[in-house]
């Protein structure tokens, strides 16, 4: 299966080169595709046993991500002596579990003291021994694809001498248990929350529909100016960025962007917004999620493995977003927009 996947990735690369970043050589694109393919095959391998939070397999994944961060050129966050932000997660049954976010830093080499956060969760749901046949939930698209895209994004930007903002690349733990890793960081931040300009999470970016190559969508598109900014920049590179897949699914609240965007919103607040149509005052940072998933049936299924990932499309998206970020000016300001559901204010 791995050989077939590699053949498909190589063949699809030939179709994707026309949408590669302007200024990138064919060898650069090929190198990123080969790296991304290798990274995907590591993270989504049966040997990782579904990357469940608290497992010995996930402890190994943490160290693997740290090494990749070092290879890319990501540093530890200023004031920290480790890439690991350790915390205690809890399973759905309340069992305490050892967990850790993996946090990397790329300085902007500029005068700005602001930050932009890009991330994805590296945990998944493990193994279900009650199933017949395949029992391992490899989580290739959910969300090894996001971790790989985050690292390609970071690798793309590490080549530049200067960035518009300082960059945080985060691999979150315990997302599958209720966004616990990103919540922990938002409540115990390694950087001042009022210095975070904006950001996005990669969420299921590995399996596009055949008629939706070079097309992604973003949650919370009506909430901030990040959406029109990225949409315009991606269009220049042959990528479409659509509004959220289905507003009724509440996807803005179901990814690791939510703990940052809704810093002080509790369940009752959200319930009043959606059930009682009451506009809520919320403190938050414009943070969103980007995906290419459009309802395919592999979500939380054992067949979500490396063989279904379109690596060239994933790499092209990560590189395109890297160029879009690099193209921002240092005085770019991402603003909350007036909308019918929330009255957002930034943390002070």
TrEMBL record:
Keywords: Signal. InterPro entries: M28_fam, Peptidase_M28. Residues 1-22 form the signal peptide. The keyword Signal applies. Residues 101-320 form the Peptidase M28 domain. PANTHER family: METALLOPEPTIDASE M28 FAMILY MEMBER, PEPTIDASE M28 DOMAIN-CONTAINING PROTEIN. This is M20/M25/M40 family metallo-hydrolase. It comes from Kangiella marina.
């Amino acid at each position: 299966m791995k050989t077939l996947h590699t053949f498909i990735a190589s063949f699809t690369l030939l179709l994707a080169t026309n949408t590669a970043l302007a200024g990138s050589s064919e060898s650069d694109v090929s190198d990123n595709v080969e790296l991304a393919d290798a990274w995907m095959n590591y993270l989504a391998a049966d040997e990782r046993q579904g990357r469940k939070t608290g497992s010995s397999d996930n402890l190994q994944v943490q160290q693997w991500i740290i090494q990749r961060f070092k290879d890319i050129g990501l540093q530890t966050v200023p004031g920290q002596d480790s890439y690991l932000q350790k915390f205690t997660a809890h399973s759905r049954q309340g069992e305490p579990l050892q967990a850790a976010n993996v946090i990397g830093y790329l300085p902007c080499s500029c005068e700005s003291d602001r930050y932009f956060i890009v991330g994805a969760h590296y945990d998944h749901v493990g193994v279900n021994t009650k199933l017949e046949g395949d029992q391992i939930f490899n989580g290739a698209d959910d969300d090894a694809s996001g971790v790989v895209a985050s690292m390609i994004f970071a690798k793309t930007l590490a080549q530049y001498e200067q960035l518009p903002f300082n960059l945080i690349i985060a691999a979150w733990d315990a997302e599958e248990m209720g966004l616990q890793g990103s919540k922990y960081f938002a409540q115990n931040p390694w950087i001042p929350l009022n210095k975070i300009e904006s950001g996005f999470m990669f969420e299921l970016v590995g399996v596009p529909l055949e008629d939706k190559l070079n097309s992604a969508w973003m949650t919370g598109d009506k909430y901030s100016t990040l959406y029109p900014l990225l949409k315009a920049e991606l269009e220049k590179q042959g990528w479409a960025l659509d509004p959220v897949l289905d507003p009724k699914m509440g996807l803005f609240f179901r990814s690791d962007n939510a703990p940052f965007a809704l810093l002080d919103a509790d369940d009752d607040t959200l319930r009043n917004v959606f059930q009682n149509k009451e506009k809520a005052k919320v403190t938050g940072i414009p943070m969103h999620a980007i995906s290419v998933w459009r309802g395919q049936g592999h979500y939380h299924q054992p067949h979500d493995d490396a063989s279904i990932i379109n690596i060239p499309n994933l790499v092209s998206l990560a590189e395109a977003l890297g160029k879009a970020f690099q193209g921002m000016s240092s005085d770019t300001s991402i603003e909350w927009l007036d909308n019918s559901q929330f009255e957002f204010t930034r943390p002070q």
